[in-house]
Each structure stands twice: as structure tokens, then as C-alpha cells.
């Protein structure tokens, strides 16, 4: 019986060792699993952070692209408005020499034989001026005005005592504006 007790004791000790070994292995496996879970969590957090950063960068790119597009639309709108506003500029520049010639023709001496002809030229001249006015073309007033280099082109200087200095004394060629833009500055004489 003693042998049986000894065998039982040895078996019990072996079982206890096996159980302890199993527990130790389980704990090690658990620690390894926890370690691998933690490393997975770390890698997932890193991936989430990277994705957040990429999302933020993409969001910023979208905002910049949207702002650039808005600026493009505004710039295009302003260009179209300016184009519409000054669309008559080219034709006006081509018509101004003809208007100058009409004015010179109307300044010529009129006799009885040419009176009807001059009346016809005068009517055509008025129609041209009215058409230009309808498109926003205006003459630049200058005689008696203070010289303004933005709308006047001084070609001569004179000394007149009864006129203030830097005043336009005579208009040599009419100047014109299209809305708020100078198409052709007026050629003038200016008092010193």
C-alpha cells in the first residue's frame, strides 16, 4: 500500500507539475496574445492616424481647388463684363478719323450751290454722333479746363496773360471716352 501511496503521490506531483506547466504555458500564451493584440492595436492606431492625415490633406486640396475655381469664375465674369462694356471700342477707333473728316468738311465755306450737300453731310454727321453716344462714346470737354494728362495730350504751350497757368486754351483734335475709358485723348494747347 505504501507503494500505491507512493505511486499516487508521484502521480499527483506529476499532475501538479503538468498543471503548473499548462498554467505557465497558458499565461505565456495569454501574454503573447495580449502582446500581439497590443501590437495590432498600435498598428491599427497608426493606420487610423495616417488615414486621418490623408483625409485632412485631401480635404485641404478640395478646399483649395474649390477656391481656385471660384476665383476663376469671378475673373471670367469680370473679363466678360469688361468685354461687353468696351465691345464698341474697336469700331469707335475706326470711325473717329471719319468723324474728324466730317467736322473738317463742315468747317469749309458754304455757298448757295453746295448748301444742300453740306446739309446732307451735317445730317450724316449727327447720325454718326448719335449712334456713338448711344454706345457710351462721349467727347472730352477741354477748352477752359485744367490740363489733365489722363484725358489731354498737350502738343503746344502758349503764354496768355488773361488765362490761368496750366489751363487748356485751344482744342486741336477732339478726344473721346467710351464709358469711363479714354479712347483718344484730346490734342490741346496749354497755357504755361
TrEMBL record:
Residues 1-51 are annotated as: Disordered. The keyword Cytoplasm applies. One of its GO terms (biological process) is protein folding. Residues 14-30 have a biased composition (Acidic residues). InterPro entries: GrpE, GrpE_CC, GrpE_head. It is found in: Cytoplasm. GO terms for cellular component: cytoplasm. Gene3D superfamilies: 3.90.20.20, Head domain of nucleotide exchange factor GrpE. Residues 37-51 have a biased composition (Basic and acidic residues). PROSITE patterns: GRPE. Keywords: Chaperone, Cytoplasm, Stress response. One of its GO terms (molecular function) is adenyl-nucleotide exchange factor activity. Pfam families: GrpE. Participates actively in the response to hyperosmotic and heat shock by preventing the aggregation of stress-denatured proteins, in association with DnaK and GrpE. It is the nucleotide exchange factor for DnaK and may function as a thermosensor. Unfolded proteins bind initially to DnaJ; upon interaction with the DnaJ-bound protein, DnaK hydrolyzes its bound ATP, resulting in the formation of a stable complex. GrpE releases ADP from DnaK; ATP binding to DnaK triggers the release of the substrate protein, thus completing the reaction cycle. Homodimer. Belongs to the GrpE family. This is Protein GrpE.
Amino acid at each position: 500500500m505504501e507503494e500505491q501511496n507512493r505511486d499516487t503521490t508521484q502521480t499527483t506531483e506529476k499532475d501538479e507539475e503538468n498543471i503548473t506547466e499548462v498554467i505557465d504555458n497558458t499565461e505565456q500564451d495569454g501574454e503573447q496574445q495580449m502582446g500581439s493584440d497590443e501590437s495590432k492595436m498600435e498598428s491599427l492606431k497608426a493606420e487610423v492616424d495616417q488615414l486621418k492625415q490623408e483625409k485632412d490633406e485631401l480635404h485641404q486640396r478640395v478646399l483649395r481647388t474649390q477656391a481656385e475655381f471660384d476665383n476663376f469664375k469671378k475673373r471670367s465674369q469680370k473679363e466678360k463684363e469688361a468685354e461687353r462694356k468696351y465691345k464698341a471700342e474697336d469700331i469707335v477707333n475706326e470711325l473717329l478719323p471719319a468723324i474728324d473728316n466730317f467736322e473738317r468738311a463742315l468747317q469749309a465755306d458754304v455757298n448757295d450751290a453746295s448748301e444742300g450737300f453740306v446739309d446732307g453731310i451735317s445730317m450724316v454727321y449727327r447720325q454718326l454722333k448719335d449712334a456713338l453716344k448711344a454706345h457710351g462714346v462721349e467727347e472730352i470737354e477741354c477748352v477752359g479746363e485744367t490740363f489733365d494728362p489722363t484725358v489731354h495730350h498737350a502738343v503746344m504751350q502758349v503764354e496768355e496773360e488773361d488765362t490761368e497757368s496750366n489751363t487748356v486754351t485751344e482744342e486741336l483734335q477732339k478726344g473721346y471716352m467710351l464709358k469711363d475709358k479714354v479712347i483718344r485723348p484730346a490734342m490741346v494747347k496749354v497755357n504755361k
